[in-house]
Amino acid sequence: MGGTLALWYDERDKGTEMVRGAQRLLGLEEIGCVRPEVELHFNLWRDLNTSIETNFLDIGLRFRTSLEPVKQFYIYIPCKIHSEHLRDISQVLKFGQTLDAVFNSVISLGDQGDRYYKTTNAGRHFTTIYSIDFSVDGDVHVEYIQNDDQSTGSLIIFTEKLCGRIRKQQAEGCLNSYIRFRLYLKGPASEVFSQEIDVNDHFTVPLIGRLELTEFRLNEKRSYPSSIAEIARKGQFNVAQIHYFLIRDLRHELTMQHKPFRKVRRLEGKLWRHYLLDNGDERRVAEYERLADRMVIYHWREDAQDKSPVEDFVAFASFRASARNIWVYLLIAVLLGAVGSSLATGVANILKWRDYDVGPPGWEGWLMLIVLFGVAFGGLARLLAPPSLRLLRQIASWRRKIL
Question: What is the secondary structure of 3-50 as a DSSP string?
Fold first, then answer.
């Protein structure tokens, strides 16, 4: 776990000049800088089930202004991913009430075209949703970057082909544009946002549980690898709003978060059914219905303030979950009880043997004596270990000086 996502774009000289000219005419130019406005959606899904897929991040970008200045744009992921782990989910949004769930409003389907469709809200254009081709010669390709610490990061590059398609519709009056895709967090990527740690030793973990830390960072510049800091500096979007949703099982108890949520609610199973299942078979549908009732959505939101865009975003939360080896703990507890009973019998037999000169104390008595000697020897060794180690280090130091 660690690192930050990053979002930026390469400038398109012709588009930049066109937009700057329009801003000058309208008196809206600010320090000669033109930055497209974007609203970002991130849904981190955890704890579902392998039959449905688990541990994935859905990313949505809603462009509120023209992409004329944008040649192509990038999302940096601080780990190695593969292009086959990326999936367009624009078509999934059409089914059921998925659009309502994603945009938290009553959204209707409008006209459809070649790899896009329009949506409306209260009879007016809301946003145009574009599909993304993740094939080899499609709209996106993935490249790798070797970071300073020898880790590998990934660049998801959204090419000029996709940006040109969006610009074409924007020129026809459909300015508000949206794309949405899914990143399956597999292999090394499975721990890029979450890490499970033991909060105590292995003996007490089954009773106390495990702690999972979940942290999502975006555009946190101090966490940029040096290569990303250099290339991302010029083409920063004007981020107007960020919505981050973390979806967890109720059995994971929230213990801490870095700032208050905007909202916490249970997952609306019917609203999200098509989004998660597509047209799943009966087995997957039954599994989903069983799990959906115990899923909780934690929602963080960050808005631009006083015309200043959101520069970065961090959301941290920790959860406690019961450990899976509780049955091992119960077995150990039963065995300890049996051993304790035998030791008690052994103590009684030893006392009788000593005081009343009866027969040998039996196997329980000898076991008790062995345990007592073991405890005494272990305690003595633990007591003498630190000074012995210090003495050995001092001897080694003297030896190095002499030689």
Answer: --BEEEEEE-HHHHHHHHHHHHHHT---TT----EEEEEEEEE-S-BT
Q: Cα(294)–Cα(249) distance, rounded to whole angstroms?
A: 6
pLDDT score of 26: 47
Q: What share of the chain is helix, strand, coil (3-state, %, to 5)?
A: 35, 35, 30
Q: What are the Cα distances from residue 60, in Å, to 134, 268, 338? A: 15, 20, 58
> In terms of DSSP bridges, do strands 56-63 and 177-184 run parallel, antiparallel, or are they unpaired?
antiparallel
DSSP at 92: G
Q: For residue 317, what are the CA distances in angstroms to 22, 165, 217, 221, 267?
A: 44, 38, 12, 21, 18
Whether the pLDDT of residue 375 is over 70: the answer is: no
Whether the Cβ atoms of residue 160 and residue 68 lie closer than 8 Å to each other: no
137-183 pLDDT per residue, tens? 899 999 999 888 888 999 999 999 999 999 999 998 889 999 999 99
Residues 361-369: what's their mean pLDDT?
Answer: 58
Read off the pLDDT of residues 116-133 as tens digits, 9 standing for 90 and up. 999 999 889 999 999 999
| Strand order through the sheet with 140-146 | 6-11, 70-77, 152-158, 140-146
The answer to whether 297 and 47 are in contact (CB under 8 A) is no
DSSP state at residue 75: E
pLDDT > 50? residue 31: no
User: For residue 127, how many other CB atoms are within 10 A of its CB?
Assistant: 22
